[in-house]
Design goal:
This protein is an all-beta fold and 197 residues long. It has one domain: UDP N-Acetylglucosamine Acyltransferase, domain 1, CATH 2.160.10.10. The radius of gyration is 18 Å and the shape is globular.
Length: 197
Protein backbone atom coordinates (compact mmCIF):
# COMPACT_ATOMS: atom_id res chain seq x y z
CA UNK A 1 0.00 0.00 0.00
CA UNK A 2 1.22 3.49 -0.84
CA UNK A 3 -0.44 6.68 0.40
CA UNK A 4 0.92 10.02 -0.79
CA UNK A 5 1.85 12.38 2.07
CA UNK A 6 -0.68 15.00 0.90
CA UNK A 7 -3.60 12.54 1.03
CA UNK A 8 -5.99 12.71 3.99
CA UNK A 9 -7.01 9.17 4.90
CA UNK A 10 -9.09 8.71 8.03
CA UNK A 11 -7.56 6.28 10.52
CA UNK A 12 -11.04 4.71 10.63
CA UNK A 13 -10.95 3.91 6.90
CA UNK A 14 -9.97 0.41 5.78
CA UNK A 15 -7.49 0.38 2.91
CA UNK A 16 -6.66 -2.96 1.26
CA UNK A 17 -3.21 -4.26 0.43
CA UNK A 18 -1.59 -2.95 -2.72
CA UNK A 19 -3.73 0.21 -2.94
CA UNK A 20 -2.20 3.38 -4.41
CA UNK A 21 -3.62 6.62 -2.98
CA UNK A 22 -2.32 9.67 -4.84
CA UNK A 23 -1.93 13.42 -4.17
CA UNK A 24 -4.61 15.33 -2.24
CA UNK A 25 -7.06 12.43 -2.02
CA UNK A 26 -9.53 12.52 0.87
CA UNK A 27 -10.92 9.26 2.23
CA UNK A 28 -13.39 9.62 5.08
CA UNK A 29 -14.08 7.50 8.15
CA UNK A 30 -15.38 3.93 7.75
CA UNK A 31 -14.83 3.95 3.99
CA UNK A 32 -13.51 0.59 2.78
CA UNK A 33 -11.29 -0.09 -0.23
CA UNK A 34 -10.46 -3.63 -1.30
CA UNK A 35 -6.99 -4.70 -2.40
CA UNK A 36 -5.18 -3.19 -5.39
CA UNK A 37 -7.34 -0.08 -5.85
CA UNK A 38 -5.92 3.07 -7.44
CA UNK A 39 -7.29 6.44 -6.33
CA UNK A 40 -6.16 9.38 -8.48
CA UNK A 41 -5.20 12.89 -7.47
CA UNK A 42 -7.86 14.98 -5.74
CA UNK A 43 -10.51 12.25 -5.51
CA UNK A 44 -13.00 12.38 -2.65
CA UNK A 45 -14.42 9.24 -1.02
CA UNK A 46 -17.10 9.96 1.58
CA UNK A 47 -17.74 8.15 4.85
CA UNK A 48 -18.94 4.54 4.73
CA UNK A 49 -18.45 4.24 0.96
CA UNK A 50 -17.72 0.62 0.03
CA UNK A 51 -15.26 -0.10 -2.80
CA UNK A 52 -14.28 -3.59 -3.97
CA UNK A 53 -10.96 -4.89 -5.23
CA UNK A 54 -9.06 -3.74 -8.33
CA UNK A 55 -11.13 -0.56 -8.71
CA UNK A 56 -9.62 2.42 -10.53
CA UNK A 57 -10.83 5.86 -9.48
CA UNK A 58 -9.47 8.66 -11.63
CA UNK A 59 -8.48 12.22 -10.68
CA UNK A 60 -11.05 14.49 -8.99
CA UNK A 61 -13.82 11.87 -8.87
CA UNK A 62 -16.45 12.54 -6.18
CA UNK A 63 -17.97 9.51 -4.48
CA UNK A 64 -20.52 10.32 -1.79
CA UNK A 65 -22.01 8.48 1.18
CA UNK A 66 -24.30 5.61 0.15
CA UNK A 67 -22.22 4.46 -2.82
CA UNK A 68 -21.10 0.85 -3.29
CA UNK A 69 -18.62 0.05 -6.05
CA UNK A 70 -17.99 -3.62 -6.84
CA UNK A 71 -14.79 -5.26 -8.06
CA UNK A 72 -12.98 -4.10 -11.17
CA UNK A 73 -15.05 -0.97 -11.81
CA UNK A 74 -13.62 2.16 -13.45
CA UNK A 75 -14.62 5.63 -12.26
CA UNK A 76 -13.48 8.26 -14.77
CA UNK A 77 -11.94 11.69 -14.11
CA UNK A 78 -14.32 14.14 -12.42
CA UNK A 79 -17.16 11.62 -12.30
CA UNK A 80 -19.71 12.46 -9.61
CA UNK A 81 -21.79 9.89 -7.72
CA UNK A 82 -24.44 11.75 -5.73
CA UNK A 83 -26.78 10.67 -2.91
CA UNK A 84 -29.60 13.15 -2.27
CA UNK A 85 -32.69 13.28 -4.49
CA UNK A 86 -33.91 16.51 -2.88
CA UNK A 87 -30.76 18.51 -2.08
CA UNK A 88 -31.27 21.54 0.15
CA UNK A 89 -28.86 23.40 2.43
CA UNK A 90 -31.62 24.39 4.86
CA UNK A 91 -34.97 23.17 6.15
CA UNK A 92 -38.17 25.14 5.38
CA UNK A 93 -37.76 27.00 8.70
CA UNK A 94 -34.33 28.24 7.59
CA UNK A 95 -32.33 26.00 9.93
CA UNK A 96 -29.26 24.29 8.52
CA UNK A 97 -30.01 20.70 7.46
CA UNK A 98 -28.37 18.02 9.59
CA UNK A 99 -27.81 14.31 9.11
CA UNK A 100 -31.38 13.47 10.24
CA UNK A 101 -33.00 15.92 7.80
CA UNK A 102 -32.47 13.99 4.56
CA UNK A 103 -32.55 10.45 3.17
CA UNK A 104 -29.62 8.76 1.44
CA UNK A 105 -30.51 7.20 -1.93
CA UNK A 106 -27.79 4.58 -2.55
CA UNK A 107 -25.90 4.06 -5.80
CA UNK A 108 -24.55 0.67 -6.87
CA UNK A 109 -21.82 0.33 -9.50
CA UNK A 110 -21.60 -3.37 -10.41
CA UNK A 111 -18.57 -5.49 -11.28
CA UNK A 112 -16.52 -4.30 -14.25
CA UNK A 113 -18.69 -1.25 -15.01
CA UNK A 114 -17.03 1.92 -16.37
CA UNK A 115 -18.09 5.54 -15.89
CA UNK A 116 -16.63 7.98 -18.42
CA UNK A 117 -15.04 11.32 -17.55
CA UNK A 118 -17.37 13.90 -16.01
CA UNK A 119 -20.32 11.52 -15.93
CA UNK A 120 -22.90 12.08 -13.19
CA UNK A 121 -24.84 9.24 -11.56
CA UNK A 122 -27.99 10.38 -9.79
CA UNK A 123 -29.17 8.96 -6.46
CA UNK A 124 -30.84 5.55 -6.38
CA UNK A 125 -29.27 4.29 -9.63
CA UNK A 126 -27.60 0.94 -10.32
CA UNK A 127 -25.07 0.68 -13.15
CA UNK A 128 -24.99 -2.97 -14.25
CA UNK A 129 -22.10 -5.39 -14.69
CA UNK A 130 -19.64 -4.46 -17.44
CA UNK A 131 -21.84 -1.54 -18.54
CA UNK A 132 -20.22 1.60 -20.00
CA UNK A 133 -21.43 5.13 -19.32
CA UNK A 134 -20.21 7.66 -21.90
CA UNK A 135 -18.25 10.75 -20.87
CA UNK A 136 -20.38 13.69 -19.78
CA UNK A 137 -23.52 11.60 -19.37
CA UNK A 138 -26.15 12.13 -16.69
CA UNK A 139 -27.46 8.74 -15.54
CA UNK A 140 -31.00 9.11 -14.22
CA UNK A 141 -32.13 5.46 -14.16
CA UNK A 142 -30.66 1.98 -13.89
CA UNK A 143 -28.28 0.80 -16.60
CA UNK A 144 -28.61 -2.90 -17.52
CA UNK A 145 -25.74 -5.35 -17.38
CA UNK A 146 -23.54 -4.86 -20.48
CA UNK A 147 -25.47 -1.71 -21.45
CA UNK A 148 -23.82 1.13 -23.37
CA UNK A 149 -25.38 4.47 -22.44
CA UNK A 150 -24.64 8.11 -23.10
CA UNK A 151 -26.33 11.48 -23.19
CA UNK A 152 -28.27 13.80 -20.90
CA UNK A 153 -30.26 11.97 -19.81
CA UNK A 154 -28.26 8.84 -20.59
CA UNK A 155 -30.09 6.42 -22.91
CA UNK A 156 -29.35 2.88 -23.91
CA UNK A 157 -27.51 2.94 -27.26
CA UNK A 158 -26.36 -0.68 -27.49
CA UNK A 159 -24.42 -3.36 -25.66
CA UNK A 160 -20.77 -4.12 -24.93
CA UNK A 161 -18.92 -7.21 -23.85
CA UNK A 162 -16.32 -7.20 -21.02
CA UNK A 163 -13.67 -6.14 -23.56
CA UNK A 164 -15.71 -3.02 -24.36
CA UNK A 165 -16.57 -4.21 -27.87
CA UNK A 166 -20.02 -3.25 -29.11
CA UNK A 167 -22.35 -5.75 -30.72
CA UNK A 168 -25.80 -5.80 -32.25
CA UNK A 169 -28.54 -7.25 -30.06
CA UNK A 170 -29.66 -9.92 -32.52
CA UNK A 171 -31.51 -12.88 -31.09
CA UNK A 172 -29.77 -16.21 -31.46
CA UNK A 173 -30.98 -19.71 -30.64
CA UNK A 174 -32.95 -20.08 -27.41
CA UNK A 175 -33.70 -16.32 -27.29
CA UNK A 176 -30.22 -15.38 -26.11
CA UNK A 177 -28.13 -12.59 -27.57
CA UNK A 178 -25.48 -13.43 -30.14
CA UNK A 179 -21.99 -12.05 -29.74
CA UNK A 180 -18.76 -13.54 -31.07
CA UNK A 181 -16.34 -14.89 -28.47
CA UNK A 182 -18.63 -14.41 -25.48
CA UNK A 183 -21.28 -16.51 -23.77
CA UNK A 184 -24.41 -14.38 -23.17
CA UNK A 185 -26.54 -17.00 -21.39
CA UNK A 186 -29.56 -15.32 -19.76
CA UNK A 187 -27.84 -11.92 -19.41
CA UNK A 188 -30.66 -9.94 -20.95
CA UNK A 189 -33.64 -11.40 -19.10
CA UNK A 190 -34.24 -8.21 -17.13
CA UNK A 191 -33.73 -5.53 -19.80
CA UNK A 192 -36.37 -2.81 -19.78
CA UNK A 193 -34.67 -0.09 -21.82
CA UNK A 194 -35.50 0.77 -25.39
CA UNK A 195 -32.60 1.14 -27.82
CA UNK A 196 -32.43 4.66 -29.26
CA UNK A 197 -31.01 4.71 -32.76
Amino acid sequence: MRIHPTAEVSPQAQIGEGCLIWHQVQIRERATLGPNCIVGKGAYIDFEVSIGRNVKIQNSALIYHGVTIEDGAFIGPQACLTNDKVPRAVNPDGSLKGTDDWLVSPILIRTGAALGAQSVVLPGVTVGRWAIVGSGSVVTKDVPDYGLVWGNPARLRGYVNPLGQTFSPIKADNDHMACPDFDWQAIFDTLDWEIIE
